Amino acid sequence: MRHTTIIVGGVAGGATVAARLSRLDSERRIILLERGPHVSFANCGLPYYIGGEIAREDDLLLASPELFRSRYGIEVLVRHEAVQIRKAENILMVRNLQTGEMLEMPYHELVLAPGAVPFRPAMPGIDLPGVYTLRNVPDATAILRAIEDGKVRSALVVGAGFVGLEVAENLQRRGLTVHVAEGAPHVLPPVDSHMAGYVHELLEQNGVLVETGVMAGGIRRTGNGRLQAYADNWCSAEVDIIILSIGVRPESGLARDAGLETGINGAIVTDEQMRCSHPGIWAVGDAVQVVSRITGKPMLLALAGVAQKQARVAAASIAGRSGERFSGVLGSSVLRLFGTTIAMTGLNPDSAARLGLGDQAEYVDLHPANHVTYYPGATPIHMRLLFNRENGRILGAAAVGTSDVARRIDVIAAVMGLGGTVEDLEMAELCYSPQEGSAKDAVNLAGMAAANCIRGLHPVAHAEDISADTLVVDVREKAEVDRQPFPGAMNIPLSELRRRWREVPADKPLLVLCQVGMRGYNATRFLCSKGLNARNLTGGYLTMSRRRK
Ligand code: FAD
What we know:
With about 550 residues, the protein is an alpha/beta fold.
């Protein structure tokens, strides 16, 4: 038999393994099996197909079976489902879904790239007509057909994660009244509650009706034929369709039944070359358990870039190039919602606390402009940078804004991926022209604020540090304070502080407040130089006022 590699799953992970393997070894027979009707389709584009921004189904299809065959010599079998691995014999049992025929397919190497399936909890009403999940082109087409028949006026999206919110925006673009129900205390659970506040506000400003802390336990059809999600002490608005977007589960039944080692939620366990627990079998993508590069612990992360990087490593490993490794994930993600971008990488204060890293972690908030403010069109980027307070290692970052947001988080993620510190961000040499940034880029500023914190030059405080035992010294100008007062604060503008600093009580820890944290830093330095115990409320009024809402 010609040397044969069979790949199960023909999208991000599987198609990438196939293509790279064919480049590394053109003599090998490569068979790509896909249960669905399409290979290499753009899952990430599905919400925008529903919304109409991507106009045609064909635009989602990145490569056809014919292209795989002609360009790479890869045999693609769509509508073929792998149903059993007879691993002792190196045989894969495959069902042709068009004919029902069972095929016995021998292999030398097997790659599992079956992805993850939308989570559908065993709740009453989950199978009612009008309840959808979104994973592939037929799912998107079904939702689109329902909307296009004109009878659907409202929708409930259960789950306010990345995909749920993308779907919510796109259903709204179609003119539907859109409700979102999230079980966690805030929308977009991967970011912290503070950054999620920006997203919540954005959704409400755009007319999406959001409820948080509500965990749907069932779905029912109401007397007037509409759908309603409910729990013991909650029920949603009555809507025409419901989209469940409450996470995914690794589609690892094939691996589990074959006795391969599995981990969290049944995800397939691999080594750094993506090899499974049985020789001759590799696995990549959403079905695989990954390791956090921050904590070193196993976790799940269903992202296309992760699947594709793993796929390249698996192909290299299969081709005998064992030097390539997949060394884990940071969790860099981005969402564009109603013209605003929310990007994140690594941990945040909430997740660090959950992981027991709260004692080591410190963070700074800042609100720099995307480019110099004298050039027209500057917009703020609301940033949060989390770092190890002892050694300055970057632990994570998140940012929200309308322009150039992902670029800043990408830079931080790249430095973090190399094990960098906040001083590396401070010194990062980044592009600058008035239209594109600042001589002190937002990333540099974040690094400076954090590095000065570690150096003891910039003691920082947060909203939760404000108490009856502390005094907030507001160093904004009087006109600013009149417009946006901060209750309980003593106002001495920075411009008067050198003259009036003796008015500040010396017997209390001082928390210094300005609008965004910059003047507060200057005032903190000055007060500390006078022997007072002062810390800067990082992010200033713009951050504090959000916490107090
Ligand atoms: P998949 O792409 O899911 O492919 C697995 C394929 O295997 C499926 O087509 C399935 O039919 C097939 N299969 C499963 N079992 C068998 C079997 N037994 N036999 C044959 N075939 C089988 N990620 C991002 O990074 N950014 C985004 O913006 C983003 N947006 C997304 C939006 C949506 C709506 C969705 C659903 C996902 C999004 N993702 C995004 C996630 C991203 O698409 C996945 O991480 C990525 O596709 C995973 O690749 P994979 O190859 O592991 O799995």
